[in-house]
Amino acid sequence: MRHRPDRQHTPAGKGPLAKARSRPHSRPGPHSRPGQANARRADRQTHVGRECVATCPFQVHMSGVRVTRTLPNPRLPIALREAIAFAWERRRAWERDLNAANQRGTGGSSAENTAETANASTSVGAAKGERAGAGLVPPITRPGIFHLAFPSILANLLYAVVAMVQTKFVGELGAEAVAAVGVGQRVFFALQAVLMAISAGTTALVARAWGADDRTEASRVTMASLAVGGAFAIALTLPGFLAARPVASIFGLDAATIELAASNVRWMSLFNVAFAINMVLGSALRAAGDAWSPLWVGAGVNVVNIPLLFLLVFGLYGVPAMGVAGAAFAGGVSFTLGGLVMLVMWIKQAFRLRYVSNGWYRRERFARLLQIGYPAGLEMLVFQAGFFIFLMLIGNYYGTEAFAAMSVGGNLMMVCFVVGFGFSIAGSTLVGQHLGADDHEGAVRSGWRSLWYAVLSMGSLGAVVAWHAPSLAAFFLGDEPVTIAHTIHMAWIMAAITPLFAVEFAIGGALRGAGDTRFPLMATLIGLIGARCGLAILFTLLGWPVGWVYAAMAGEYIVKAAMLLGRFRSGRWKTIAPIPRAAH
Question: What percentage of the chain carries pLDDT values higher than 90?
Fold first, then answer.
């Protein structure tokens, strides 16, 4: 070994660690006193702890106590033993923090919670010293982008697979059935704008409360959101029945397709409450950093959905064939089962986000929820209105085949969208949690990282879909050459602008997680209504082919990407929503 003059070498066989090794590790004999064994054990711990403190290049503190635990296996290198001891203490401190947070979430004594949190908190720096005394220090570890994005991507990928299976089954019934399902989904999503607003407010407030280590407030926001979402879901059932046919008729489709679309909307409206439970509770769990529980529940929903689709669409084994209505009924039944499972598990305290039955009904909490959420609901209404205008142009001027191609092309690109949505959830959650912990730099880093991951992944998947677009379109549509040609053009255009989709998903999600829901509304209004619909109307009046109308989407996403990136770089989103505080 080369001699280092700047280091002091200890001769072999000497030093505290060598002394600790030389002592026998045998159990005390029958004639030895128990106190001697305890003294030897304490002496070993003291010597090893001193050597750890003397040689470790950093100060090892956890829960305010210097690490003096007996290091594992003296034959291991000292650096490895120090790392193992440090990791062990971090794990124990994390468990103490989690237990303290769970006790606060279940309504424990405020004084006991504060004392326990102060004992279990880590030394995170002088900047957060004041908050440590109040029990507001965030957890030691915060979930990473992929920890949140990966299960969200898998969950939405499963839903995308079900959507493709549904397209395949309904495609066997003809282009009219595919167009009817597309119209039905547009109308249904327009009616669900209120639930989207509540979901956005839930994500922002739960993430901030969780980042501020206020588990009780996060649970109460979730309970309030479920109450509001359930009430609006019940109220939307009747409009779903009454407005189904009038709204479906504005797309200029033939009478048979309009009737199929109206039937699809009516059946889906019956299950509004189930959709609300899945949407709101799933958003709250993801905002608390638990993206795996919604994944498992969603997997169960899809396992039930696909066999029901096959049975109800085609009518096998004595089950009557329902066609397009069967697709809606199968989805509603599966989501009802998933919502019940998730609700029961939450009440049984099976999630890290605890169930609370008291203290959630406060006017200030509802006001905060609606203040953040209503711009997201308006954004969804603007999006659906702009999409209606866009589809009306295609349906009235270019026919049912071009209209069906719009729906199929979107389903082909669904794999890209679910990846972007996963990074949107991750960015939204992490930005909200970092802001709740007063870590603005961490919030900025999370937003940019979500963007770059989304651009790389969505761009790669978009290229793969564009390469295989002809074979995929033929697989889903069968013997429909005109619709297949339009679908290929649609898929190529959407694949070319997937990086712009990534900006909307990642940066838009980050802004919503910060509570800045008004600016994405403005971007959607200007980009969709002004750019996309304006260009589509111009191309239609000029008599250009439908491919140019499809390409009007590029104008929308160029405008939206520029606006969202400028807003995020400005930093004005950091102080939009105040950090919530629970009223105990």
Answer: 12
Give me the amino acid identity at 381: L
- What are the pLDDT digits (tens) for 259-291? 888 888 888 888 888 888 988 998 899 888 888
State if pTM tops 0.85. Answer: no
* CA 191/CA 271 separation, integer angstroms: 13
Output b/e per residue, 402-438; b: 16+ Cβ within 10 A. bbbbbbbbbbbbbbbbbbbbbbbbbbbbbbbbbbbbb
> Hey, where are the domains in the chain?
35-122, 145-575
Q: How far apart are CA 246 and CA 460, in angstroms?
A: 41
Task: For 340-375, write each residue's pLDDT tens digit.
Answer: 999 999 998 888 888 888 878 888 888 888 888 888
| H helical segments located in 288-323 | 292-314
CB 211 within 8 A of CB 437: yes
Confidence of residue 394 (pLDDT cuts 50, 70, 90): confident
Report yes or no: 292 and 230 within 8 Å, Cβ to Cβ. Answer: no
Sign of CA dihedral 464, 189, 478, 543: negative
Q: CA-CA distance, 566 to 569, in Å (whole number)?
A: 5
Phi and psi (nearest 5°) for 66?
A: -70, 140
Question: What are the backbone dihedrals phi and psi of residue 514, each rounded to the nearest 5 degrees, phi first?
Answer: -80, -5
User: What sign does the CA torsion over 310, 312, 314, 318 have?
Assistant: positive
Q: Is 291:285 a contact under the CB 8 Å cutoff?
A: yes
Q: Contact, 63 vs 122, CB < 8 A?
A: yes
